[in-house]
Amino acid sequence: MSIPLAMVATQFLDRPGLAKKTVKSYEHTLMPLLKQYGSWPIEICDRQILTDYLNSLSHLAYTTHHRHQATIQALFNYAVEQQHIKSNPIAKLKRRKPDADKGEHSSDEAIRYLSADQIKQMYRTVETDCRTHTIVRLLHRSGARISELLALDLDVVDLKQQKFQVIGKGNKQRWCFYSDDAAQLLNTYLKHYRDHRCPALFTAQQPIAGNVSRLSYRTVHQNWRRVIAGIPALEGVRLHDLRHTFATERVGLMGIEELRALMGHESIMTTLRYQKVTSARAETVAQSALKKLAD
């Protein structure tokens, strides 16, 4: 007799010995899957269906994507144990790799940040595109991730206090604050370029159908590549590098715990990486100065 996926998930979550925090995390992770396939008999949920579902979660950071895949795999392992199915359909499925274009990286990858000259060049380059300029300025001044910025609706941005709240990795909320220059540019964008027919902070209109929707990461990335194309100083620069630049600039200007809170890092070790970057940069500058003095 077949059993719905949602019923198996309920049994999976009701297992004795699970901590409340673990159950809550599993529920949050499985809910989108159950909304689509909860009523389906579990044996119908084959490898192709689950692979397509995981591929649809492209908006998630790769570490969050790994957690979703691991939880779904654990659910189907449980289904095998309970003899609801014969084998786990996503057994040995490869995990998604980090996407460098989205600023994702392994923990041992060097932090990439922009120099002062690169920042000046960048701002001069994006001046002709108000929407891209606004996004770039906010990323650099607030330290927000591009995915967090694009998920914002206008009504959650405090224009007077120049701040907005985002939901970052691990479903954690934090405040991001932006500077006067970013505020002025944002006001210009809102007044002359944003389409009021969509609640999103950053909107886009389809060229043929004319429909207005939330600006996608793909469109932002394409515009960014188009704007910086042919600029040697910006070759290979990613939008996520602006977040790294934000953090690098603030090391030494505030406590490491305060910077950790601004960045939304779960581990203090992640924040300390920027301190190492700043120390290495200081050494480079010092060596350069000594060489000039010697000459």
From TrEMBL:
<dbReference type="Pfam" id="PF00589">
    <property type="entry name" value="Phage_integrase"/>
</dbReference>
<dbReference type="InterPro" id="IPR010998">
    <property type="entry name" value="Integrase_recombinase_N"/>
</dbReference>
<dbReference type="InterPro" id="IPR050090">
    <property type="entry name" value="Tyrosine_recombinase_XerCD"/>
</dbReference>
<protein>
    <submittedName>
        <fullName>Recombinase XerC</fullName>
    </submittedName>
</protein>
<dbReference type="GO" id="GO:0006310">
    <property type="term" value="P:DNA recombination"/>
</dbReference>
<dbReference type="InterPro" id="IPR002104">
    <property type="entry name" value="Integrase_catalytic"/>
</dbReference>
<dbReference type="InterPro" id="IPR044068">
    <property type="entry name" value="CB"/>
</dbReference>
<dbReference type="InterPro" id="IPR013762">
    <property type="entry name" value="Integrase-like_cat_sf"/>
</dbReference>
<feature type="domain" description="Core-binding (CB)">
    <location>
        <begin position="3"/>
        <end position="80"/>
    </location>
</feature>
<feature type="domain" description="Tyr recombinase">
    <location>
        <begin position="109"/>
        <end position="287"/>
    </location>
</feature>
<comment type="similarity">
    <text>Belongs to the 'phage' integrase family.</text>
</comment>
<keyword id="KW-0233">DNA recombination</keyword>
<dbReference type="GO" id="GO:0003677">
    <property type="term" value="F:DNA binding"/>
</dbReference>
<keyword id="KW-0238">DNA-binding</keyword>
<dbReference type="InterPro" id="IPR011010">
    <property type="entry name" value="DNA_brk_join_enz"/>
</dbReference>
<dbReference type="GO" id="GO:0015074">
    <property type="term" value="P:DNA integration"/>
</dbReference>
